[in-house]
Specification:
This protein is of the alpha/beta class. The protein is built from 10 helices and 9 strands. The strands form 2 sheets. The chain has a 5-stranded parallel sheet with strand order 2-3-1-4-5, with helices on both faces. Strands 7-8-6-9 form a 4-stranded parallel sheet, covered by helices on one side. Helix 2 links the parallel strand 2 and strand 3. Helix 4 packs across helix 5 and helix 9 packs across helix 10. It is elongated, with a radius of gyration of 22 Å. The model has no long low-confidence stretch (mean pLDDT 89).
């Protein structure tokens, strides 16, 4: 039997991951009180022919003693129970945005607390289980289909896993550097298509702009050098347990050069290793050059 404990930050995608695992054939139980977990495992062990894949959702609402969860889980593991831990995470900025959009109260905030206080408290409480997680998925820049593909890769196709998700992000410097970017590359050394009338209103998602930008040898050389750098960096980041790497590609407005080169870099990085890969364009719909 494969037993997966799905936990993580409130708003990080735990409930969505459970639904996806259920669709993939897992028997799912959500938010079971912590003291009952041992009993559930015992019952499932006695019914191995009926339940071969089980996922248990666990979050801070499961009990006031959640900080002691790891001790209990270690006791279960030493007693012969096998399980894996999937931790769903997201940046503070994204969590705040999601909570404000949903208009829900954070489970760790009181009437006098700010939302940021609840997120900070929850991170402190979950630090122990995060450090022991077998899988960490950061959903800050993941589309729903990308999350499903990552879960299928791990829990359905049983492919090799490392915790790193590489997010390639195009942006415009005039709108600010992304706060969560780990590596930032400035591609304003290339001619700007904005100043060509027939390309001005198009973006790097259009073939005409891509052809123009990539017609300069420096563009291809830039992509070659970044791919070479990432091939070196990624295995070392994985070795150190890093689970998210955001690669920012910036031009002036984030519509032409950065989008073109981010698209090119994404295609080059596909299928180069056992890590997740996402692509997003922050400013492609904004007005400006």
């Amino acid at each position: 039997m494969r037993f997966v404990i799905v936990t993580g930050m409130s708003g990080g995608g735990r409930a969505t991951a459970l639904r996806m695992l259920e669709d993939a054939g897992y028997y799912c139980v959500d938010n079971l009180p912590i003291p009952l977990i041992a009993g559930l495992m015992e019952l499932l062990d006695q019914a191995t022919t009926e339940y071969t894949k089980v996922a248990l959702g666990l979050d801070v609402r499961a009990g006031l003693n959640f900080s002691d969860t790891m001790e209990m889980l270690e006791q279960l593991r030493s007693s012969g129970h096998n399980f894996e831990i999937l931790f769903m995470n997201a940046s503070d900025e994204v969590l705040v945005k999601r909570y404000k959009e949903s208009r829900r109260n954070h489970p760790m905030t009181t009437q006098d607390d700010r939302l940021e206080d609840g997120i900070r408290k929850e991170r402190e409480v979950l630090a122990g289980i995060l450090s022991k997680a077998d899988y960490v998925i950061d959903t800050s820049n993941l589309l729903t289909r990308e999350l499903k593909a990552e879960l299928d890769r791990i829990f359905v196709d049983n492919e090799d896993y490392n915790s790193l998700i590489v997010s390639i992000l195009s942006f415009g410097f005039k709108n600010g550097v992304p706060q969560d970017a780990d590596l930032v590359f400035d591609v304003r050394f290339l001619p700007n298509p904005f100043y060509i009338d027939e390309l001005k209103t198009k973006t790097g998602l259009d073939e005409e702009v891509r052809e123009y930008v990539m017609s300069f040898p420096e563009a291809g050389e830039f992509v070659d050098k970044v791919v070479d750098m990432l091939d070196f960096l990624i295995p070392n980041y994985v070795k150190e347990g890093k689970y998210k790497l955001v690669v920012g590609i910036g031009c002036t407005g984030g519509k032409h050069r950065s989008v073109t080169l981010a698209e090119c870099l994404y295609k080059r990085m596909q299928n180069r290793g056992q890590y997740g890969l996402t692509l997003s364009h922050r400013d492609v719909t904004r007005a400006g050059k």
